Amino acid sequence: MSEPVALKLTAKDFKSDQEVRWCPGCGDYAILAAVQQFMPELNIPRERIVFVSGIGCSSRFPYYMNTYGMHSIHGRAPAIATGLSATRPDLSVWVVTGDGDALSIGGNHLIHALRRNVNLKILLFNNRIYGLTKGQYSPTSEVGKITKSTPVGSADAPFNPISLALGAEATFVGRTIDSDRKHLQSVLRAAAEHQGSAFVEIYQNCNIFNDGAFDQLKEPATRDDYLIRLEHGQPITFGRDGQFCVVHPPGGFGLEVRETAATSPDEIVVHDATVTDPAYAFALSRLPGLDLRNTPIGVFRSVQRPSYDSVVQEQLATARAKVTDTPEQQLAGLLNSGDTWTIL
Amino acid sequence: MTKQIRQLDRVVIRFAGDSGDGMQLTGDRFTSETAQLGNDISTLPNFPAEIRAPAGTLPGVSSFQVHFADYDILTPGDAPNVLVAMNPAALKANLADLPRGADIIVNTDEFTKRNLAKVGYQVNPLDDDSLAGYVVHPVALTSMTIGALADQAVSKKDAERAKNMFALGLLSWMYSRPYESTLRFLERKFAARPELVAANVAAFRAGWNFGETTEDFAVRYEVKPAKMQPGTYRNITGNAALSLGLVAAGVRSGLPVFLGAYPITPASDILHELSKHKKFGVLTMQAEDEIAAVGAALGASYGGSLGVTTTSGPGVALKSETISLAVALELPLVIVDVQRAGPSTGMPTKTEQADLNMALYGRHGEAPVAVIAPKSPSDCFYAALEAARIALTYRTPVILLSDNYVANGSEPWLLPDVESLPDLRVEFATTPNGEDGTTFLPYLRDPQTLARPWAIPGTPGLEHRIGGLEKADKTGDISYDPANHDFMVRTRAARIETIPVPDVEVEDPDGDARVLVLGWGSTYGPIGAACRALRQRGLPVAQAHLRHLAPMPANLGEVLRSYDRVVIPEMNLGQLAHVIRAKYLVDAIGYNQVRGLPFTAAELETMLEEVLKNV
């Protein structure tokens, strides 16, 4: 195969002519800029890239990308994108969604897209609030959240999107943060390279209805002590001085955070995103507490499984391999099959 | 012994038994033999939704009715001339439908005290005189089958299960059916188990020979072939014809067909059938739910496939929001609704026409779509092609309203020449359409069809965004402009309303009728049969049948106004009648039944006679 021709696209090529209409200060701006800046790296012509979204603030995203795009209906983007991806394996299909869109009204489509391993890059902007409908709690809001629809606090426990995606048999699961462009793009890069469903949770700040939801992960004073930056093949240590580490205590099911100084180096878990058993990545996803301490970011899991489009397209190709008749001849044969009789 | 042979012009046979007795298969085989002979045929299967209802009970009765004749017929027949009752439940459930003098063939082995008690028979009806008005043929079907298979290498259970083939053999003898196709069928069906082929063939022959030798069956019948148009035929159900129509639409458009579907009675057979046709490039996806099924179909259409979703009423309700999105996106989409009795789960295996309102109006906002309905099993093929044609040409969702009656009923189908099928080729947009030569305007319409360009992803230079938010005319940009919204709503309405559809044809052979019967969908057969019967008695009546329900044929108003009375029979509470009254200000008379069963020709004849008297 010859080397692909460098398209020499820039971030500017991916900006549409539409005026961006998110609230000033919204985390979505940073994500949009990061994505537009990252896109040229794909070296895929713009016409072969499609962004499909549902409903919500994040779902306006396709209008701002100078690619093909569809702003669809609430929760259904993964289903619509599945039909597109299955029939058009030549396209790079991206789904942009939010915590309400993907995990509440569209929860069913998300989990089934992941289990089918549809070749979609799913970006879930998680701000833990309903923004477009002006401030109700979401399925990722913390218990007791006081919002317009829960004046004395919400009663229901939240989803952990990473745990959910892993439970749904996702082959690629990552998490990143709106404000950390470099990290965001590194996760996008890994997701784009993955064949099959890539699920990326992006912590995103809604400065109007849930401002500061992820501040501990962003403030210079706290972020290094709170964030676990997962790097494949590296021992999992974190903290501004590397003072914390992750271990797998014997006899336990999960992972735990320990003080590095009090831990033997060979006890420290070496991150391996390719572990087949999802229990490992799931254990990582359960590390953070309510205060966001011990929040892993990066690629939790990246394993190989045939993608849905490749399997169904192969079935079609196999069925057609031996066909020599024209479609019209085939159709005539099909219509005349079974018990027929002729009247002269 | 030489048996008397009597000629008949038509016969209606109903095979009835327990859901596990194989009555659908028996009826199917008898139909196939009858087709080979060249009779015209119409069939009506009737079965419970339960896969295996408790054995021997009334809810567990499954039946298959076949009507065959030496002339062209329109319905599966109102009343059976022959009932095959495999157990007391089958007798009890079907007796009320039999006219006096009908033949009843009963499997006496099943008329045990226990089985009789299960269905509330205090006394064995074969022993008292309750069946005196019928010609009863008691046959020990089970024990004779087991006896005939005594030297076969099959278990007693398998031998007992072959009793339906004994019954088929007997009926095939009675009506002089050619049985070679059944023997071939058994060889195919049990290819993996030769001992079952032998056993079933032996059971079939035993039934045939029993008819020939027993004195109980003194007469053998013949029904001569019907005069049918020359050509090659096959017997086809509506669901099978609809599936083939979708395959044909793919071939004739040159587009891949994508079916998104969630299993639902009575539409699942379309999913099953289409999943077999991958060599035509037909991709089927069993989605996680009804919403995903239509969503994936719409996504496939966006990518340049012919997107199709198949379902029944409850599924259409769930798909409603996505259909509205397709209206806004102006993309081709075919939605097949095989209607069943509702509301809610209703009676999933019984027929009804009560989704017309939902098809016409069941969406939020002003969201018009095209709606068409097939009139018979084989017409489902052409209706599918027509739905695809409208969807592709006008870039719109089309709802195809089939129903359980046409979906599972069957009739002979004169196979079309592939080249005679409509050319459905479409052109995707490939170049910018703006005046400056570089801009692409996704909502710039074709002045003739009002369709917007179909620019599929992968086309360089035409990158654009579409969505559910209101779009500015031509550019497709998000727009909240009041005048633009008013314009777009009216334009979306106009582009459905101006789709040219064929004029409705009126059947009024002598041209002297004063009453018009207007129908739609699967009622065509019973209405047609009733009109013929009236005309034969010298009572003129005109029949018109709607295939296109949105938009309606341009000549419909004129047709309606040229009769003194318009009668609209429907298997709902008057949904088409409401539309006709509102749209054409015609004082139409509704005739409505929602019993889960098709109309009988006789009841329509009686009703129409009353109307004729009062004109």
Task: Summarize the model shown.
The complex is a heterodimer of chains A (344) and B (615). Chain A has 344 residues and is α/β, with parallel strands linked by helices.
Q: What is the distance, rounded to the nearest whole angstrom, between the alpha carbons of the first and last residues of chain A?
A: 58 Å
From the alpha-carbon coordinates, what is the Rg of chain B to the nearest angstrom? 27 Å
Low-pLDDT parts of chain A are none
| Number of E-state strands of chain A | 12
Give the overall shape of chain B. Answer: globular
Helix share, percent of chain A: 25-40%
The main pleated sheet of chain B reads as: 7 strands, mixed
- Name the structural class of chain A: alpha/beta
- Please report the first level of CATH classification, the CATH class of the largest domain in chain B: Alpha Beta
- Roughly what percent helix of chain B? 25-40%
* Uncertain residue ranges of chain B: none
Main sheet attributes: strand count, strand direction, barrel closure of chain A:
8 strands, mixed
Number of domains of chain B: 3
Whole-number average pLDDT of chain A? 96
Number of helices in the DSSP assignment of chain B: 20
Description:
The complex is a heterodimer of chains A (344) and B (615). With 344 residues, chain A is of the alpha/beta class. Chain A has ten helices and twelve strands. In chain A, the strands form two sheets. In chain A, strands 2-1-3-4-6-5-11-7 form an eight-stranded mixed sheet, sandwiched between helices. A three-stranded antiparallel sheet of chain A has the order 8-9-10. In chain A, a hairpin with a 5-residue loop joins β8 and β9. The N and C termini of chain A lie far apart (58 Å). The model of chain A has no long low-confidence stretch (mean pLDDT 96). Chain B has 615 residues and is α/β, with parallel strands linked by helices. Chain B folds into three domains: 220 residues, Pyruvate-ferredoxin oxidoreductase, PFOR, domain III (Pyruvate-ferredoxin Oxidoreductase, domain 3, 3-Layer(aba) Sandwich), CATH 3.40.920; 187 residues, Thiamin diphosphate (ThDP)-binding fold, Pyr/PP domains (Rossmann fold); 108 residues, Rossmann fold. In chain B, α6 crosses α8, α7 runs antiparallel to α8 and α11 packs parallel to α12. In chain B, 54% of the residues are buried. The mean pLDDT of chain B is 96. At the A-B interface, β2, α2, α4, α9 and α10 of A face α1, β9, α9, α11 and α12 of B. β2 of chain A pairs parallel with β17 of chain B.
